[in-house]
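User: Could you go from structure to sequence for me? I need the amino acid at each position, not a summary. Structure tokens:
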């Protein structure tokens, strides 16, 4: 595998990373030998859907998690600490205005510094008089960070994709 020992400039390394690790649980990742640069993509957790009276008003979908990407110079053996944003839970009930939980924030820490943050999506809000607001959020990424919808009512957790 090629080594890279210089500063990373924008997208100059596009196509440079032949390997990908998808991290879906919080923990640590150790930079492999011979790796001097990584591309990190963090996805925040998707938010839950809100509801008022499901039979009458339906659901307000949760927002997807935000996505953040950056290239990072690393050294072999360096430890990245990763916290994965949880999926927000959807509200249940039929009386009054009921909101759900936002998606959790995904972070990557290297050398004691937070190097990447992706916030979770915002909750959908449904109110008893029939109004509803879809939760705000980012775009999610593939299967990660999806906001809850009216069919499944399940949001998905965030992730960190590490290309090296």
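Assistant: Here is the amino acid at each position, in order:
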């Amino acid at each position: 595998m090629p080594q890279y020992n210089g500063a990373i400039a924008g997208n100059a390394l596009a196509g440079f990373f032949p390997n990908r690790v998808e991290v879906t649980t919080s923990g640590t990742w150790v930079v492999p030998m011979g790796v001097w640069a990584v591309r990190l993509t963090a996805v925040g957790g998707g938010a839950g859907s809100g509801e008022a009276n499901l039979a009458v008003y339906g659901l307000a979908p949760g927002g997807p998690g935000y996505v953040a990407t950056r290239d990072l110079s690393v050294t072999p053996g360096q430890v990245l600490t990763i916290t994965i944003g949880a999926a927000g839970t959807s509200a249940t009930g039929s009386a009054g205005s009921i909101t759900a939980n936002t998606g959790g924030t995904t972070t990557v820490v290297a050398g004691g510094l937070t190097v990447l943050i992706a916030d979770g999506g915002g909750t959908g809000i449904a109110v008893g008089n029939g109004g509803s607001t879809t939760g705000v959020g980012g775009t999610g990424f593939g299967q990660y960070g999806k906001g809850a919808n009216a069919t499944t009512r399940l949001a998905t957790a965030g992730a960190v994709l590490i290309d090296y």
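One structural detail worth keeping in mind: The helical segments are 54-57.
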